[in-house]
Specification:
single chain, Tetracycline Repressor, domain 2
Amino acid sequence: MERLLQSVKIAINENVFLKDPDSSELGKRIIEHSILLIDEIGFEGFTFKKLGERIGSNESSIYRYFENKHKLLVYLTSWYWGWLEYQLVFETNSIANPEEKLRQAISIVSKTTVEDHSYRHINEVLLNKIVVNESSKSFLTKEVDEENKQGYFVIYKRMVGRMEEMIKGVAPGYSFASSLASTILEGTLHQHFLMDHFPSLTSCTLNNPPSNFIHDLVFKVLKS
């Protein structure tokens, strides 16, 4: 998997950035240290000025890559879903049994993230934490409908579509495949958030992780 990912470029919608950060060393440093800084101080406290000070570059140089920090967050969350999508495709492509395929897909999207070292400028563990804690801020905005039309969330929507098709493979007559697919992705993030911040509101723990809950939920629904 690691070798395969090393040769893969995760393509982000060009409307999200002004200059592709993957095209230069400065751009990669912007991505690397934005992940570190957002994880450290949160998205609300994060500014391009603070990021510029962190990487020893002018604030204006960051604006040559991203119009604002909202679009940077969209880029980071899109990259995460693209990275997860490649894992999903690679690890389920050879599985013929529909139920086994769906189980593997759920394991991939709900497991605890580990750093794979395929992309040296991106810490996937910290990026996962950002997605868990901050990703809803990328679409809970007044501009969400227009941004959706411009393709900002196409990778996430494609992920839901892949999960939907796998659900239909197991239960062709199930009427809520798309709803269940999006619930798998969002429910996983929510359970990880509750584990970290409101443990009394979830039954999930390190020894009984969200993946167990999602598997239980999905297959009880589909077999009921």
